[in-house]
Design brief:
Layout: H1 4-15, E1 22-24, H2 37-49, E2 54-56, H3 83-86, H4 90-93, H5 95-103, E3 111-112, E4 117-119, E5 130-134, E6 138-143, E7 152-154, E8 165-171, E9 178-185, E10 191-192, E11 202-209, H6 214-217
Parallel strand pairs: 1-2
Antiparallel strand pairs: 3-5, 4-7, 5-6, 6-11, 7-10, 8-9, 8-11
């Protein structure tokens, strides 16, 4: 069964219109002790990569901006917390890394490109690789957890980029660290994406290098 994101993409293509969408607290951190920082990251990047204009972080025990540690109105749901503690939990702290990732590109120019990354094997819904792009100039590609061994190819590049070369950055959504990888050249409108270093989630940021740019010759 298609999930919300797949149905939304289909509806927008059919209607040929833009719809503002905000993903609100999709997975509360620590809710029923099953929602951890990895699920919070997955929910946030998945929402933004699919076209939502924002994501609101939620944490179990914080059902409204609780100001008082003695406030017991929601104790029926378990351990209570206050907003300044919830914000420092790992899932909340890593939202700052998400901001850094998107601010490293002209994020307002990015549009969802849900079908450009192809894999040799069929992926489960929670493994879906999500891409946003500014034409063929910049690509931000999110790989969920447990996709390390999956070979992925960026496809559908325009004919004029046949000889294009892309710089590649590996962004770590857990720490915000960035690693420069080897450049990749386009072959027959496709580009083979590098392997990921572990089974955790990762992002690639690809930028097309023009022949007159300093990075092209360095």
């Amino acid at each position: 069964m298609e999930d919300y994101l797949a149905l939304r993409h289909r509806a927008l293509r059919f209607a040929r219109c833009d719809v503002a969408d905000l993903r609100r607290i999709f997975c509360f951190l620590r809710l029923n002790w099953t929602k951890n920082k990895s699920i919070v990251r997955w929910s946030a990047y998945r929402a933004l990569q699919a076209g939502s204009f924002g994501f609101t972080y939620g944490s179990h025990g914080l059902w409204y901006p609780t100001q008082n540690e003695e406030d017991s109105k929601v104790d029926v749901w378990g351990e209570r917390t206050v907003w300044w503690k919830a914000l420092k939990r790992p899932g909340g702290a890593q939202m700052a890394h998400l901001k850094k990732c998107y601010e490293s590109v002209e994020w307002w120019k990015l549009e969802p490109r849900p079908d450009v990354v192809k894999t040799a094997e069929e992926l489960k819904e929670h493994q879906r690789i999500l891409t946003k792009a500014d034409g063929d100039r910049v690509f931000v590609i999110y790989f969920p957890r447990n996709t390390q061994s999956i070979k992925a190819t960026l496809t559908g590049l325009k004919q004029q980029t046949e000889a294009a070369v892309y710089s590649v950055e590996l962004f770590n959504p857990r720490t915000s660290s960035v690693e420069e990888l080897n450049r990749i050249a386009v072959t027959e409108s496709e580009l083979a994406l590098p392997n990921r270093p572990s089974a955790e989630d990762w992002l690639f940021i690809l930028r097309e290098l023009t022949t007159d740019s300093e990075d092209y010759t360095n």
